[in-house]
Amino acid sequence: MTNNVIEVRHVKKSFGDIQALNDVSLCVERGEVFGLIGHNGAGKSTLFKSMLGLIQPDAGDILINGTPLHGEAFRQVRRRIGYLPENIVFYDNLTGLETLWFFADLKGVPKSECLAVLKTVGLDHAARRRVRGYSKGMRQRLGFAQALLGKPDILFLDEPTTGLDPVGIREFYGIISILKKQGATIILTSHILAEIQERVDRLALMSTGRVQAVGTVHLLRENLGLPMQIQIVPHPEILPPVLATMEANGFSHTIQSDEGITVICPRDQKIPLFAALAPYLSEMIDIRITEPSLEDVFHGYSIPKPTTHTRENP
Amino acid sequence: MAIGIDISQIGVIASKEFWDRIRNRWVVAIAIVFAVFALLIAYFGSAQQGTVGFKGIEVTIASLVSLVIYLVPLIALILGYDAIVGERERGSLDLLLSMPITRLELLLGKFFGLSAALSFSTLAGFGLAGVLIAPQIDLNSLYNYAGFVISAILMGMAFLSMGVMVSVLASDRTRASGAAIALWFFYVLVYDLLLLGALVVSGGQIGGDFFPYLLLLNPADIFRILNIFSMAEVKNLYGLATVFPETLSDPKLLGEIMVCWIIAPLGIAAWRIE
Fold first, then answer.
1. CATH class entry, domain A4-222
2. Do B9 and A93 touch (CB under 8 A)?
């Protein structure tokens, strides 16, 4: 049996002249936290809605737990899914608890579960207040709560941390890691790349309706061959020989400051550089290595033909 | 591939719609409006003739029909036009449809929930008035009054069905409200004038024979026929007995046509929402 919870195969969807999804294929494995990254209009919301069966693709198949979202299977699959849409809207006249009761009824979940779910997202104190008076962050928590109803196997979270303060964001990812441990599969989108990169197992980078790359953050960086930033802080007396050694190894473009020597280093030059600097390592105050951020990776894949970075002075 | 209908999902949506209207006092407000109008017409309807007081159920029903024929379609269309397009425009439709519910179930839930609210208001409002009038009328008149209330409920459902259809077809709320008002204008104000105009212009030559049947294409007219022709006294009062075919005086047949008027727009909505 396949371990893929979600399989998207050659899905196409266009709205008028706009090709929102152009031959998209990807798989999400059971129990992983999967990130979907892309600019506005990249097609991630369309892909999300297609996976949920809210949009019918023009071509291609989408399987959830090995089943297409057609016929009676649709209802069984839907009961096992939690969805938090972007910009969630509730019925202002209902209280938080009544809102959850309504969705619990639709999902076939006992109403008695609702208060506990509100407690999980830290909203139990406002359970009996009308949603009209909720802040943006509280609405987002309530949205997360309805997605958690019935302990779903798969969670679709579209920009889940919008409107949350830093404490709320930390709490949110705390819940995500607990759900992951319990075996749930989580697919989320975010525009804050720095926030998502530490918290997802794998990523799909989308632009112009295509999946440009899929993999772990590490793998995506490796494949793109983006250089890293290395900062060397030597004792002042060894500064001249260190600079000379670096120049001899092709690192003439160095930036010197109080912080030390900063250099942009291609991946394949990292080990040769440290090998050359080996005699001075004991005299170093500090060495810092900064990997390219997800933003850098993303921009690398967003341009049509990614070019591999090479040294400026070979 | 077809998916079976889950009655319980329809029930969840319907009960939310109904209780929303109870909670925001919509039902109570409409019921009070109906009750007050019914009592005013019953006791002061003849004030123009210089007398006040209850003049009999037939005259009361005839006056109530004239009022209800304007009011109920308007209320029903206003209630219905927002049902689907409102959810879509507010952005709550996607979340609803991500639940284990089909679009058809959502549509039917909305319709039945709103129907329940409208029917409950109608029944409560005219029912209360009926209870107050009851001691002064005989059983047969009470039967006529009950017929009036039931036909008002059916007419409400027919126009609600049209409103819900508009709500599915319209791209935004503004257009939906415009279309709902246009439907009211057409069926309640313009339709009869058009028929009359065609009859007068053609000197009675065109459509003379099937003219009465054209009235069946308008649920408001069916409501009028149902109530006017069930009472001999009113029938003579209107002088309509001579022009009207006997077959169309059958309340059962008229009721069935009214039910068709409830099902047809809802059917179009069901087809389009998928």
1. alpha beta
2. no
- Number of neighbouring beta carbons within 10 Å of residue A139: 20
Cβ-Cβ contacts under 8 Å for B73 (sequence gap 6 or more): B155, B156, B159, B184, B187, B188, B219, B220
Q: What is the three-class DSSP state of A264?
A: strand
Q: Closest approach of chain B CAs to the CA of A79, in angstroms?
A: 6
Total of domains in chain B: 1
**Enclosing domain of residue B89:** 7-273
- Nearest-CB residue to A88 (from B12, B20, B95): B95
Architecture of domain A227-291: 2-Layer Sandwich (3.30)
Measured CA distances, A208 to A24, A60, A189 (Å):
11, 18, 16
Task: Confirm whether B17 is domain-assigned.
Answer: yes
Which among A194, A162, A175, A200 has a CA at the least distance from the CA of A292? A194
Q: What is the ipTM of this complex?
A: 0.87
Chain A residues close to B1, C-beta within 8 Å = 70-71
Q: What is the mean pLDDT of each run of 10 residues along chain B (274 residues)?
A: 81 96 93 92 72 74 89 95 93 90 94 97 94 85 89 96 96 95 95 85 68 86 84 58 66 91 95 88
Helix B26-44 / helix B103-133 crossing angle, nearest 10 deg: 30
B107 burial class (0-12, 13-18, 19+ CB within 10 angstroms)? buried
